[in-house]
Specification:
With about 325 residues, this protein is an alpha/beta fold. Helix content is about 25%, strand content about 25%. The strands form five sheets. It has an eight-stranded mixed sheet, with helices on both faces. Helix 3 crosses helix 6. The longest helix is centred in the last third of the chain and has 19 residues. The protein starts with 11 loop residues before the first strand and ends with a helix. The relative contact order is 0.12.
């Protein structure tokens, strides 16, 4: 304890590569005495061996389940930290990537503070909310809005007329996806509109076909009325890049007028949703070439003492004899010359 400067009993100290991480006992053991330190220890080891990995924070406002997103982030080798949308303090400093799922009531002041800080420090933002939600006011500084109403499309996911058939456009978040059976699935979606702002470039990522319309009038669900013309395509997801002239770096954002694309129900059963989320996180963190930490398995060779002795003898005897033979041949050739 004196050597490491530790004053509290139960503190775990990890050191490596000239760095050190201390884990408090409260991070390792619950109030009931159960061990809960697997996650903190894993994150501490990652900070020691790869301190430059991005910090990803997730704020969820609503009852949805997004454990599949956490699993994808973990598979990429990143750490995910979940924040309570009601208790974000004034000292919030931002992260490399902030993910916001606004599918229910939220503390407007706290969440607005988090989003404003994140964009102010030049961090990346993944924002998903239901169409027409008040949460869209949080990204007005990006020129993004979502009109009220649900997007439907005459081209839908058969046999589910309530699931629009989304077109995939070329982008870093759609690598490996194609229009058709490989497009991400949603149960319903909204529309995203982006107005032109100086220094900001945006691009469509997901959209409906030209047969899409915005359901805003009561009536037969899934059938456009005269007040609802088929004025598609409608943008469902957009990627934005803003140049920070002060820090000379690009900040990235992605907005999606849909929540269920990220929920466990679709992520667990649809590989295209998993691929889209994976690509989006890579693009937003600027690490498109990062591979999964499970992609390259490690192999180790274990030998017994007898096997090791055989290898040592095989290396010590043949090699000197080989060089001796080569030397004798060279000497004989020189004498003949």
């Amino acid at each position: 304890a004196l050597e490491f400067g530790v004053e509290r009993h139960g503190t775990v100290v990890l050191r490596g590569n000239g760095r050190r991480v201390d884990l408090d006992p409260s991070e390792l053991t619950s109030s009931e005495g159960d061990f809960i330190g697997e996650g903190p220890i894993r994150r501490a080891i990652r900070r020691l061996i790869a301190p430059t990995l991005p910090i990803i924070q997730v704020i969820q406002a609503g009852p949805g389940a997004f454990h599949g997103v956490d699993a994808i982030i973990d598979d990429l080798g990143y750490d995910v930290e979940r924040l309570d949308s009601r208790t974000i303090g004034l000292d919030y400093a931002g992260a490399d990537l902030l993910i916001v799922f606004a599918d229910g009531p939220f503390d407007e002041g706290a969440l607005q503070r988090a989003v404003r800080t994140q964009l102010g420090v030049g961090g990346s933002l993944l924002f998903a909310a239901e169409p027409g939600s008040d949460a869209w006011d949080l990204v007005q500084s990006l020129g993004v809005t979502s009109p009220p109403g649900v997007v439907y499309d005459a081209q839908y996911v058969v046999p589910y007329p309530r699931q629009p058939h989304l077109e995939v456009l070329p982008h870093g978040s759609t690598v490996g996806l194609a229009v058709g059976q490989h497009s991400p699935r949603v149960s319903s979606a909204g529309a995203v509109t982006v107005r032109t702002i100086a220094g900001l470039v945006w691009q469509e990522v997901l959209r409906t076909s030209r047969m899409g319309w915005l359901e805003t009038e009561p009536g037969v669900v899934g059938v456009p009325t005269r007040e609802e013309p088929k004025s598609g395509p409608f943008t469902v997801a957009a990627a934005l890049t803003r140049r920070d002239q002060v820090n000379r770096r690009d900040s990235r954002a992605m907005v999606v007028a849909d929540i269920d694309l990220f929920e466990d129900g679709f992520v667990a059963t649809t590989t295209s949703n998993q691929q889209f989320i994976r690509n989006a996180i890579r693009w937003l963190t600027g690490r498109s070439s990062v591979s999964s930490r499970h992609a390259r398995p490690r192999r180790s060779v274990v030998m017994s003492e007898s096997e090791l002795r055989v290898v040592q003898v095989g290396l010590l005897v043949p090699y000197p004899l080989c060089w001796l033979s080569i030397g004798m041949v060279i000497r004989r050739l020189r004498r003949r010359a």
